[in-house]
Write a structure and sequence with these properties.
The structure is a single chain. With about 350 residues, the protein is α/β, with parallel strands linked by helices. The protein has two domains: about 250 residues, QueA-like (3-Layer(aba) Sandwich), CATH 3.40.1780; about 70 residues, Thrombin, subunit H (Beta Barrel), CATH 2.40.10. About 15% of the residues lie in helices and about 25% in strands. It contains six helices and 17 strands. A hairpin with a 6-residue loop joins strand 1 and strand 2. Helix 5 packs across helix 6. The two termini are about 25 Å apart.
Amino acid sequence: MKTSQFDYNLPPEYIAQTPVEPRHASRLLILNRSSGEITHSHFYELGKFLQRGDLLVINKTRVLPARIYARKPTGGKVELLLLRSLEPSIWRVLVGGKRVKRGLVLQIPNGPNAEIIEELSGAERLVNFSEPIVPFLDSIGEMPLPLYIHETLEDPERYQTVYSKESGSAAAPTAGLHFSEEYIEKLKSKGILFAEVTLHVGLDTFAPVTEEKAEDHKIHKEWCRVTQEIADLINQTHLSGGRIVAVGTTTVRVLETVAKYAYQECIVGEFAGMTDLFILPGFQFRVVDALVTNFHLPHTTLLMMVSAFAGMERIMHAYQTAIQENYRFYSFGDAMLIM
């Protein structure tokens, strides 16, 4: 399957630069993956398309203020973007700056020193901080907004979901940004259930696939967890006839990963660890019945995943329809419900 098949042209003015207020006021495109029918609505009407006993599965990860600035002994400025923790003091990091070589010790104002201990591919480095870095981030770190967002974010919490709890992501699970606390309570009052899983999102999630054949892409790994309590709730919902509705592609990745740990009549099992699941068209979904998601960048594994769920032709048609109807795209953009 050629990567070029997952392409579309989006004029820059369609890329949302700021989030809407309130969160649940964004638009919602509903795609019926069986018939291809498209319906236009708003996120605050999501409940009309759900039934009592359906289960919304959300990713409770929290974005780290992972962009920090350091200086070389010569005074030169270096940007560090934390990608993944290997140990409390050792991180995979994306660096911005010249001649950031192995052995270089960087000084972080009001923070620990950072030694480059290994040069990885491209601008990635392995960094050993003189102290665990996470306790310093609230005071020295900045929110790592995607490069296509050029406006200043007045409130950093708008790049967090209202239910974020566990810090560890380099990017937000953006489908969840549409949920306000008020709307969650409204859905619960209608008998809609919620379940929390965790997947710490890496920046590789948003990187375009550069290989000519999508199958040749080496998928990134991300840490995820589903507790036994949550696995039981998912299994009970399925056995009771309720639908498993994944909020975001990160949640899909978790759920379809833990399907391999299911037993007997269950569809998922308990799991904590790294996932390297790569979902392409042809993938057989075992858990997810419906998906709440945003509009994704061309050539990304996220676009490939939603194409696997709904069919590539239907997704591409839906995207073209969204452009014609002036939907807002990407992280702060509008949402889709694929059923």
